[in-house]
Write a structure and sequence with these properties.
59% of the residues lie in helices and 15% in strands. With 411 residues, it is of the alpha+beta class. The strands form two sheets. Strands 1, 2, 3, 4, 5, 6, 7 and 10 form an eight-stranded mixed sheet that branches. It is flat, with a radius of gyration of 36 Å.
C-alpha cells in the first residue's frame, strides 16, 4: 500500500506562463513540497478548495497574499522554526511582480493595502524605538549628571584633603573613565535617535502616499443627489491666475489652504455646500435665500479672501465679484445644473467690485423669509437696491439687485 503521507506529484508548469507568475509558482511549489503532504489533505486542513490550491501551485491563478503567508507559516511550523525574513521578502517581491504584471485593479488595490499595512507596522516599530532610545538617552544623561556632581565634590575634597591625595586621585580617574564612556554612549544614542527619527518621518510619508493610492484605487464614493429650489452662488477672484504664475509653489499651496479653511468655517455657519472650483471661481448652494445671502457676503468681504489675493506691488486688493440666483437646481456627483446656475454665473460676471448681485427671485424669497429690510422699514438683515435692467444672453432681460448687509442687521 502506498504511503498516504507522500505528497501527490504536481503538474508541470504551463510553458506559456508569464515570467513573473512562473517565478512565484516555483517558490510556492518548493514551499508546498516542504509540507510532505498532498494537495487534498492540505486543502482539508486549511478549509480551502483543493482545485484552487492546485491552480495556485500551477501558476494558472494568482493566489491571495493570505494564502502565501499561511503556507509559509505552515512550512516553518512543520520544520519547527520561524519564518525567515529573507523568505518573506522574496515571496513579497515575487507576489508584487506577478500582481503588477497582471494589472488586475482588485489585486493592485489589495497589494497596495498590504504595503500600507507593512509601512504602518514599520512606522509603529520606529515609534517604539524612538521611545526606548529616548528613555535610554535620558538615563545616560542622568548618570552623566551624577558623575559630574561627584567629580566636582572630589575636586573640592582634593583641594582640602592633601593627605588622602592618592585615594582621591584613583577614585577621580575611575570617575573620569566612566564619564568618558557615558559621553560616548550619549553620543551614540543621540546619533541612533536621529537616524530612527528620520526613518520614522520617511515611513509616515510613505503611509500618507499609500493612503492616497488606496483612496485612488478604491475610487470615489457615491454622492448625494439634490434636486429642488435653492440658492446658487458664484464667486470669482479676478487676478488669481496672474498671482499664481508669480508665486512660488509653497506660497500657492498656503493660499489654497487658507481659502479651504475659510470655506469650511463659512459652511459651518450657513450650511453652504461648496462644489468644484474652476480656476478662481467658487460655486456653492444653500437651502434658503437667507443662508445664500449670508454666505455670499461673508465670502465677498472676508479679509481671508481679499488679503491673499493682493496682486499689485502697492498692496491693492484683487477684485472679488459674486452672483446669486434662487430657483430649481439639479445636482449629482458634485455637478450642479439648471438655469439658476447659469443666471448666477452671468450675474457674477457683471457684478461690481466687492459686490454681490442677486436676481429678482432671490430678493422675493428674502422677503418671504422676512430677512429683507424694505425701504423706510426696520428690521431685516439684508438690503437690496435695484440696478439697471439688461439683457443676458440666453436668459432675456434680467433685473439685477445689489445685495448688502443692513447697517444694524445681525451677523
Amino acid at each position: 500500500m502506498a504511503n498516504e503521507n507522500v505528497p501527490a506529484l504536481l503538474r508541470p508548469l504551463d510553458g506559456e506562463l508569464p515570467a513573473e507568475a512562473r517565478s512565484l509558482a516555483n517558490s510556492l511549489r518548493v514551499l508546498f513540497n516542504g509540507l510532505e503532504t498532498s494537495v487534498r489533505r492540505y486543502a482539508v486542513r486549511r478549509s480551502r478548495d483543493a482545485g484552487a490550491i492546485s491552480r495556485y501551485l500551477n501558476g494558472s491563478r494568482l493566489p491571495p497574499w493570505e494564502f502565501i503567508l499561511e503556507l509559509a507559516r505552515d512550512v516553518a511550523a512543520h520544520r519547527g522554526e520561524s519564518i525567515k525574513d529573507e523568505t518573506l521578502e522574496l515571496l513579497r517581491n515575487q507576489y508584487r511582480a506577478a500582481v503588477e504584471a497582471r494589472g488586475n485593479p482588485a489585486s493592485l488595490l489589495e497589494l497596495t493595502r498590504q504595503q500600507l499595512a507593512e509601512a504602518d507596522r514599520k512606522a509603529q516599530q520606529s515609534a517604539i524605538q524612538i521611545r526606548v532610545l529616548t528613555e535610554a538617552l535620558q538615563d545616560r544623561k542622568t548618570l552623566l549628571h551624577d558623575i559630574e556632581l561627584q567629580l566636582r565634590e572630589l575636586q573640592h575634597r582634593d583641594a582640602i584633603m592633601e593627605l588622602k591625595l592618592d585615594r582621591v586621585t584613583e577614585e577621580r580617574d575611575g570617575l573620569l573613565q566612566q564619564k568618558a564612556q557615558l559621553e560616548n554612549e550619549v553620543t551614540a544614542l543621540r546619533d541612533e535617535l536621529n537616524r530612527v527619527g528620520r526613518r520614522a518621518e520617511e515611513l509616515e510619508a510613505e503611509c500618507s502616499s499609500l493612503e492616497i493610492k488606496v483612496a485612488a484605487l478604491e475610487g470615489p464614493g457615491e454622492e448625494e443627489s439634490i434636486t429642488g429650489a435653492m440658492t446658487v452662488g458664484m464667486l470669482e477672484m479676478v487676478g488669481f491666475t496672474r498671482l499664481v504664475r508669480r508665486l512660488e509653489e509653497a506660497d500657492v499651496v498656503s493660499i489654497i489652504e487658507r481659502l479651504r479653511r475659510l470655506y469650511q468655517q463659512v459652511a459651518a455657519i450657513t450650511g453652504a455646500r461648496f462644489f468644484h472650483t474652476r480656476n478662481s471661481d467658487v460655486t456653492f448652494i444653500t437651502s434658503s435665500a437667507s443662508a445664500g445671502a449670508e454666505t455670499a457676503l461673508l465670502l465677498t468681504h472676508s479679509e481671508a479672501v481679499k488679503s491673499v489675493e493682493q496682486i499689485e506691488a502697492d498692496g491693492s486688493y484683487a477684485e472679488v465679484r459674486t452672483g446669486l440666483a434662487y430657483g430649481r437646481v439639479y445636482s449629482q456627483a458634485g455637478i450642479i445644473l439648471g438655469q439658476t446656475v447659469s443666471l448666477a454665473e452671468r450675474l457674477c460676471a457683471i457684478a461690481p467690485k466687492d459686490g454681490v448681485l442677486a436676481d429678482q427671485q432671490l430678493v422675493e424669497q428674502l422677503r418671504e423669509e422676512a430677512t429683507l429690510r424694505e425701504e423706510g422699514a426696520e428690521g431685516g438683515r439684508f438690503q437690496a437696491m435695484p440696478m439697471w435692467q439688461r439683457p443676458i444672453r440666453g436668459l432675456g432681460v434680467v433685473q439685477p439687485w445689489l445685495l448688502i448687509r443692513s447697517p444694524d442687521g445681525e451677523t
